[in-house]
Each structure stands twice: as C-alpha cells, then as structure tokens.
Amino acid sequence: MSYSDKGLSSKLSDTDKAYLAGLFDGEGCINATFGTKKWIAKTGKEKIYLFPRIQFVISSKENLLLELVKTIVGFGEVYGEKMYGYRITERKQILDIVDALIPFVKLKKKGLQLSKEAVLFLLNRKYRSGWTKGELVFFREKFVLPIQKLLPSGERRGRPPKHKFHEIISKYY
C-alpha cells in the first residue's frame, strides 16, 4: 500500500537525497515516544490517554540551512531561536522522507528502518481509534524503546514527560 502521491524519492535528485542523508547522519534523529491527552468527564473524573508519536528532526545553529532543507523537501517546519530544528511529525511525510533517505544514510540506517516499520504500523491502524493497554505496551516495546536506544545518548533527551508511561497504564488502562 502506498501512502504518498508520487513519493518524495522520485521528486528529489540523488544529490539532494545524499545531502539530506548527510545532514541527518550528522545532526538528525528520529524519535518515537508517547503524547498524552487529558480528558475530564462530566462527572469530574479525569483520564489521561496515551498516543504514539514519531518525529524526524535535523538540528542546527543555522536557521538558513534548515530553511533550505524545508525548501528542498517541500514540507516540515523550522522552529527555534538560538538552536533551530527542522521537524516532520505527519506520519505520511515521515514515511516519504525515510524512504528517500534510507539508501543514502550510513550511520543511522537502522533507526530509519525501525521507524519506517513503526510508521507503517500506525498508518495501518484505524485513524483515531483508541489504544488498548496491550497495544500501547506492544508499541512501546517493539518500537519506542528500541528507537530510543539507537539515539546517540541511548535514551530520550529533552523535556521530561509530564506523565510516566507505567503510571498512566496502571492508573487509566
């Protein structure tokens, strides 16, 4: 099943793909984690829902470099002030960029291949369908933890999550 119209891979030259792959190998990462959504029922009872998130990021001190990346790729967003990031969060777009870069990436190929599997898993689920405890645990163990272990630090960095996975699972699922 194809999720892209014509595919980013066919739109980019091999030179562009190699350039982007080099930037990704040096300054990029792909990460899988869980987002949370807090919901309060009319009764006042609170529930926190978990949902998987995957993002493709290239970081740089140079905003112009990342604007060039966005122009070459044709989607994604540039954010930041002193340190900038180019980020793709939409699943079909992540699949497009991963498919385009896998043949050219040298250092982070395993992470791209695993994240491609994760994105395909997410795209094959019914959109906005609820996640069971078993599905969440499966996704975490099959994709989130292995992808995070492939990060240079071996773990997720950045802002710590507001809620811990095991606490939410034990309390709300």
What does this structure look like?
This protein is α+β, with helices and mostly antiparallel strands and 173 residues long. The chain has a single domain (8-172), classed as Endonuclease I-creI, CATH 3.10.28. 46% of the residues lie in helices and 21% in strands. It is built from 7 helices and 4 strands; from the N terminus they run ααββαββαααα. It has helices at residues 8-11, 14-27, 63-73, 91-101, 109-123, 133-149, 165-172, and strands at residues 28-40, 46-60, 77-80, 84-88. The protein has a 4-stranded antiparallel β-sheet. Helix 4 (91-101) packs antiparallel against helix 5 and helix 5 (109-123) runs antiparallel to helix 6. The chain is globular and about 55 Å long.
- Percent of residues in β-strands: 15-25%
Radius of gyration: 17 Å
Number of helices: 7
Q: Estimate the helix proportion, in percent.
A: 40-55%
Per DSSP E runs of 2 or more residues, the count of β-strands stands at 4
